[in-house]
């Protein structure tokens, strides 16, 4: 299983005061050189920008001979015949869904034993994904608590209904009805918790954005028109299912 860790750009740089010590923390987690880096477009790196991709790479691996930089789309091809590389990779600022999906497949297929991600902004969806998978925040040394079993059951039901997406049809019906049911029981219905749980359950970046939109709309008071596909006591049904599994 791939070990995951990350750091947010702001925590790494701290107004230009902490890049050196924070990079040392990252190197300690990564292990010995050489260091492999993946960026969205390796050919577009701009030298001299301390807060940019090249700056991150240069601080983590000061010696040019100690680093290999590839485009994230070409990571698999760069591995050659090795099915699993016994060496970590650092993914720098994955922003586009395409890059995040490649990263997701990389972890799912266990191409590397360790993956570190430098995140551009704390609100980036890739951070939610990493938290959902239990990644370690190297700035704090902590991980987010695992998804509550009851919510994990609800997410499994959403995944079963998402064949045509979550913005309409049965997928939307499932999300909205489960949100209403959880809210009625006083359970958390914030988008951060639900999207994190969705990623923990194997959800995609594409549908995660739709889920976040629906949950945020629900919390703003939007009254979605949906068809009832579950019983009114769906939360109790899920609780009974969990109790049965634990026997």
Keywords:
elongated; AhpD-like; 6-stranded parallel sheet; 247 residues; alpha/beta; Rossmann fold
Brief characterization of the structure:
By secondary structure, this protein is of the alpha/beta class. It has helices spanning 9-13, 19-30, 53-60, 75-78, 97-108, 125-132, 149-161, 169-184, 191-200, 205-219, 234-245; strands at residues 3-8, 35-39, 67-71, 89-92, 114-119, 136-137.
Shape verdict: elongated
Radius of gyration: 20 Å
CATH T-level topology of the largest domain? Rossmann fold
Please count the beta strands (DSSP E, at least 2 residues each). 6
Overall pLDDT confidence: 92
Molecular structure report:
This protein is of the alpha/beta class. The chain folds into two domains: 3-137, Rossmann fold, CATH 3.40.50; 149-245, AhpD-like (Up-down Bundle), CATH 1.20.1290. Helices cover 47% and strands 11% of the residues. The protein has eleven helices and six strands. It has helices at residues 9-13, 19-30, 53-60, 75-78, 97-108, 125-132, 149-161, 169-184, 191-200, 205-219, 234-245; strands at 3-8, 35-39, 67-71, 89-92, 114-119, 136-137. Strands 3-2-4-5-1-6 form a six-stranded parallel beta sheet, sandwiched between helices. α3 links the parallel β2 (35-39) and β3 (67-71). α7 packs across α9 (191-200). It is elongated and about 60 Å long. The model has no long low-confidence stretch (mean pLDDT 92).
């Amino acid at each position: 299983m791939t070990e995951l860790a990350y750091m947010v750009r702001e925590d790494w740089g701290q107004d230009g005061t902490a890049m050196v010590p924070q990079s040392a923390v990252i190197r300690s987690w990564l292990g010995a050189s050489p260091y492999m880096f993946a960026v969205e477009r390796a050919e577009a790196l701009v030298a001299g920008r301390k807060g940019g991709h090249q700056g991150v790479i240069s601080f983590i691996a000061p010696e040019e001979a100690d680093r290999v930089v590839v485009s994230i789309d070409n990571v698999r091809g760069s591995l050659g015949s090795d099915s699993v590389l016994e060496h970590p990779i650092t993914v720098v600022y994955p922003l586009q869904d395409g890059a995040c999906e490649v990263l997701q497949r990389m972890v799912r297929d266990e191409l590397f034993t360790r993956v570190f991600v430098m995140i551009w902004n704390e609100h980036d969806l890739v951070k939610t994904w990493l938290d959902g998978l239990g990644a370690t925040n190297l700035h704090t040394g902590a991980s987010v608590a695992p998804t509550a079993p009851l919510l994990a059951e609800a997410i499994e039901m959403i995944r079963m209904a998402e064949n045509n997406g979550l913005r309409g049809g049965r997928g939307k019906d499932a999300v909205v009805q489960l949100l209403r049911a959880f809210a009625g029981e006083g359970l958390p219905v914030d988008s951060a918790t639900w999207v994190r749980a969705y990623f923990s359950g194997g959800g995609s970046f594409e549908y995660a954005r739709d889920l976040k939109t629906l949950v945020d709309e629900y919390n703003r008071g939007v009254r979605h028109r949906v068809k009832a596909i579950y019983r009114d006591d769906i939360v109790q049904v899920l609780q009974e299912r969990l109790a049965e599994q634990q026997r």
